[in-house]
UniProtKB/TrEMBL annotation:
Pfam families: DUF2867, NAD_binding_10
PANTHER family the record matches: NAD(P)-BINDING DOMAIN-CONTAINING PROTEIN-RELATED, PROTEIN YEEZ
UniProt protein name: SDR family oxidoreductase
Domain of life per record: Bacteria
Molecular function, one GO term: aldehyde dehydrogenase (NAD+) activity
Length: 537
């Protein structure tokens, strides 16, 4: 599988071990870069072992059946050491985001654990993708760049030959840096911006990042150092936005830099204007306060440029925009969970011994085939909305953005298809049984844990008169009638969680009831159009 954002075939990616393919382990496989790196390594001939805390999150990815999925958390020494046993090259693509300073402690602890596990497991090389940072005095780097530098130093001191690739702004469909710049440019024909818009940066296309990552696996054993990687151009952020406007067919933007916007204010401003939450925008903004330009270009000695050369800014933007317009974005920044969002799985015990579990359950019979109903369900969110009181959804999304959550602006990776772990506005796909069941976990800011489950069943045997809002169950055995069940579940945290549930419960009939009625109506209308089209044909 290859995308426009992926490396083109060249001698570097083809340089693979001969008799026995080398085994490479990849962490961060559900993230933006890791999810794109895995298929490139497979195409280059490597045997790939995917390290993930939850292997179920790999379901739906085209390469899931081609890798060895191993359950391991990089904070767990024993599990990581066991997962790295027999590995020739280990990719460390784990980063923490968010505000506060706890991320530094977490990143330091995880890097130390991974370094020790790799050494004790006999790994031949570590490859790490870090951040490009300027040569400035100690203490002047932003907290996130300082943490990236510390992780780099820990891995280089591990005793395992290590390749560190330092990148600044990565341009590719779905990257956080690209999405931030894209929405700022598209939504604001005129804007006041922080002074950092005139700092020099050296962006790099995701295609070239992946090519360097794949090439780093075959470096000589005596090479253990960091490399600056960047594209062929040095530009300012202002110039990059103007280039995007030109590529997107927009008028030239009026950009006025002002000195009063601090990184904190800037990140909140970005969080309001773009889909990128302030918690993720802040480290991006902080890193842009520095001029991030490659101080050396030594990587080309080991991973030569492809015949067509590295992509310049304009071409990288064109390719990214093409992928978005074609609906072929393989990974997005939303692949990573929102900092602070709940990750607990849906409780399977119906009695929920752990405490109160509130449920709003509804069902109906839809006059449409199950495959048509499923099409409508799988297309919810994003541009199509949530098929109910749109003002209530928008207000809930706005309140979530104000308190630092993702809100509704994350949208979807694909307008028609979902897969496990996809972000869907302020939900995330936790489980997916195509044609039958969709389970969404809330990542909005809540005093508790919440899920929304949608189920499709051609059999109406489980329905009762009390829980059916459509035709009677005995009438639902025709070939074009489908049972549609919907559950909203909430596990409150403390008294505040209890108060939250009971304060919003009166609106469930409008929000969830309206959602079920309108989804059913949309499926019935789509089925009717298909019948008319078939009759005409």
């Amino acid at each position: 599988m290859r995308t426009d954002d992926s490396p083109a075939p060249d001698p570097v990616t083809a340089a693979v071990p001969t008799a026995t393919p080398a085994t490479v382990a990849v962490t961060g496989v559900t993230g933006y870069v890791g999810g794109r790196l895995v298929p490139e390594l497979l195409e280059a001939g490597y045997t790939v072992r995917a390290l993930t805390r939850n292997p179920d999150r790999l379901a739906g990815r085209r390469w899931a059946d081609d890798v060895e999925a191993v359950r391991a958390d990089v904070s767990d020494l024993d599990a990581t050491r066991q997962a790295l046993d027999g590995v020739d090259v280990a990719y460390y693509l784990v980063h923490s985001l968010g505000t506060g300073r706890t991320f530094e402690v977490r990143d330091r602890r995880n890097a130390l654990t991974f370094a020790r596990a790799a050494r004790e497991a006999g790994v031949g090389r570590i490859v790490y993708l870090g951040g490009l940072y300027p040569d400035v005095p100690e203490g002047e780097l932003s907290p996130h760049l300082s943490s990236r530098k510390e992780v780099e130093e820990i891995l280089l001191a591990s005793g395992v030959p290590t390749t560190v690739l330092r990148a600044a702004v990565i341009l590719g469909s779905g990257s956080a840096s690209f999405e931030m710049m894209r929405y700022l440019t598209e939504r604001l024909p005129a804007m006041t911006t922080p002074r950092w818009v005139d700092n020099r940066i050296q962006p790099i296309a995701i295609r070239d990042v992946l090519r360097y990552l794949v090439g780093a696996a075959a470096m000589p054993a005596d090479v253990s150092r960091g490399f600056d990687i960047g594209g062929p151009e040095i530009v300012t952020y202002r110039e990059m936005m103007q280039r995007y406007a030109e590529v997107a067919g927009l008028p030239r933007r009026l950009i006025v830099g002002v000195p009063v916007l601090t990184p904190r204010l800037s990140s909140h401003w970005v969080g309001v204007v773009t889909p990128v939450p302030s918690g993720i925008a802040r480290p991006l903004v902080e890193s842009l306060q520095h001029e991030v330009v490659c101080l050396e270009d030594d990587i080309r000695q080991y991973v030569p440029d492809p015949p067509h050369g590295r992509l310049d800014v304009t071409r990288a933007l064109e390719l990214a925009l093409t992928r978005i317009h074609d609906g072929e974005v393989t990974t997005r920044w939303t692949s990573a969970s929102v900092p602070g969002a709940p990750s607990d799985p849906l409780p399977t015990d119906p009695d929920w011994a752990g405490g109160s579990l509130y449920v709003d359950e509804r069902s109906t019979v839809v006059e449409a085939p199950s495959e048509v109903l499923w099409q409508v369900i799988e297309e919810i969110g994003g541009q199509d909305g949530w098929y109910s009181w749109s003002l209530a959804w928008r207000m809930r999304g706005l309140l979530d953005r104000i308190v630092g959550g993702p809100g509704l602006r994350r949208g979807r990776r694909d307008e028609h298809r979902l897969r496990v772990d996809d972000a869907l506005d302020f939900w995330r796909v936790e489980a997916l049984e195509p044609g039958r069941r969709l389970l969404l976990r809330a990542e909005m800011r809540l005093p508790g844990l919440a899920w929304l489950e949608l189920r499709v069943d051609e059999s109406a045997a489980e329905m009762t008169d009390e829980d059916t809002t459509g035709p009677a169950p005995e009438e639902a055995d025709g070939p074009h009638r489908t049972y549609f069940a919907q559950r909203a579940l909430f596990y409150p945290h403390g008294l505040l969680g209890q108060a939250y549930w009971w304060s919003v419960a009166p609106f469930h009939g409008i929000v969830f009831g309206g959602m079920q009625r309108n989804v059913a109506r949309a499926a019935e209308q789509r089925a009717a159009k298909q019948r008319d089209a078939d009759a005409g044909a």
